[in-house]
Design brief:
The complex is a heterodimer of chains A (about 375) and B (about 270). With about 375 residues, chain A is α+β, with helices and mostly antiparallel strands. Chain A contains 9 helices and 20 strands. Chain A has 3 domains: about 5-225, Rossmann fold (3-Layer(aba) Sandwich); about 240-280 and about 340-368, OB fold (Dihydrolipoamide Acetyltransferase, E2P) (Beta Barrel), CATH 2.40.50; about 285-335, OB fold (Dihydrolipoamide Acetyltransferase, E2P), CATH 2.40.50. Chain B folds into 2 domains: about 1-30; about 45-270, MetI-like fold, CATH 1.10.3720. The two termini of chain B are about 40 Å apart. Chain B is globular, with a radius of gyration of 23 Å. Chain B has 13 helices and no strands. With about 270 residues, chain B is mainly alpha-helical. The longest helix of chain B is centred in the first third of the chain and has 34 residues, at about 50-85. The chains are: A alpha+beta (about 375), B mainly alpha (about 270). The interface between A and B is medium-sized, with 29 and 25 residues.
Chain lengths: ~375, ~270
Amino acid sequence: MSETPIIRFENVTKYYDAETTVLTDINFELERGKFYTLLGPSGCGKTTILRLIAGFMQPSGGNIYFNGKLINNVPANERQVNTVFQDYALFPHLNVFENVAFGLRIKKLGKQEIQEKVLEALKFVNLSGYENREIAEMSGGQRQRVAIARAIVNDPEIILLDEPLSALDLKLRSEMQYELRELQQRLGKTFIFVTHDQEEALAMSDEIFVLNAGNIEQSGTPMDIYDEPINRFVADFIGESNIVSGTMVADFRVRIGGKEFECVDQGLNPNENIDIVIRPEDLEITTVEKGKMKVKVDTQLFRGVHYELSTYDDEGNEWLVHSTKKAEVGAFIGLDFDPEAIHVMRLNETEEEFDKRLESYGEDAYAN
Amino acid sequence: MQTKNTKTFYLIPYFAWILLFVIAPIALIAYYSLFDLSGNFTLDNYKNFFTSIYLKLTLSSFWYAFLITFFSLIVAYPTAYLLTKTKHKQLWLLLIIIPSWINLLLKTYAFIGIFGLYGPINAFLNVFGFGETQILFTDFSFIFVSVYIFIPFMILPIFNALDKLNPSLIDASRDLGASSWTTFTKVIFPLTTNGVKAGIQAVFIPSLSLFMITRLIAGNKVITLGTAIEQQFLVTQNWGMGSTIAVFLIIFMVIVMIITGQREKGATSNGKN
């Protein structure tokens, strides 16, 4: 990366008092014009990172750089960053036009210019003709758009979005996912999106940061994170997964329970204890004879696109299976899977070590 | 039908109260205002009210009520704002409210002692070489004590309005480039005007009819509509004129309530959306 990152966190920590640490040593760099997502359960520190970038909080330690300039002590109103708040935080005493114009009026732009920019921003979010409406008259989805218009009208370098879709119903939410993604590409601005919804994160982001308890567990493209989770937490948090303990017998051989399977991982210590992830959609239902594993079907749910089967093997491990094929509850079935379906996770591996290990496998292992 | 009957039953105390203590007294005041000293029906009382003496009295009443409200507001708003920022805000609020539970007369007497010629204020001023100063029976002492008495009623509604204000609105304002001061004038104050209005109502209206403080602290130098009514009834025994002033006082109060009672847009959502 030759270009200066638009945001750089350097050993950033945040704590309120000795007992409550929110962030422990956060380091990352963000490139201009990308869609980033901070993903994690509530209380993981994702909103704190956003508030640090917005300037509503100061870090307890470490440095935050914006375009290479230290901004630790720059107040929120002097940062070229605008936020779309979780509850939208629209001003109830102002109408739609005045809400969007708020930032421009503070910059003391001319009347004509404000008029033009506000109408343009409202057009951008498909709210033309709504400028004289009161906020109370707008629906949740419309308020969301007003909040976005109010942020983009100021032409900030970065737009921060704090779980902006969480208050919307499912259908509207998936619509807004498309719209936000499209908006980001049209504007070419850096978006930092905070969510606890992994589907949202996978659908929209260029890069995802998975956070847990004040730490970045893993960062990467949605596919990297989904296909190669670094540890149990990430595997569990992103998508449905079957996580079991196992042993690395040798390169390309893992043992789960009593059985050995072929895999694509190498370079681990012989007989090292590991966690293994197999995604439910990578498991295929077959006959007991043909299957690599024999399991008993416990429950079966129809999920629309697929059936979700909860099955148990002889050792009592649960295996979740997503299949378009139906099975019979109580029956024994065989499960088949490719060697690539097995993802091996070393215990307590850091992100650096993890990346190095994956690189050492070379390209051929990922041909499929 | 059962529920309808019980509903009517529960409404009886309410209507009885309204009839006995609201409608009847107002009707009586209106009735008495139509008679002169010797008991003859007349409209002269109303004519007299529009003479210079009573108009001046009304004006001075309004002026003092305005001053009391104004000083209460400029002390109460920053106080309420600071209170919402403190850690144990309910406790601090309670400490401000507690004095209002003490009898008004007792507090007023206490100020006679404090402001008196041999009181602690004069003793303090003496240290700096000021001679004995007459503090009691001045406009200053009257307004000071009145503000002291009324201030909890100004703080409380403003505190509630500020406390209900969605903090992310303040973040949003800062985020959009507003300084702290602009945030105050463009977001915080406009969204708490309802609290301010309620506070003005709670202070201005009772200030119009103050009479006990005017007598004890201002030594009857300040004459308000309240003192005028008292004197008409107890000194001059002119119930007709006293009632007439009371009728006007009620009219003024209604006007003040209408002016300060308008609901701002967005007020129903308590500053949140």
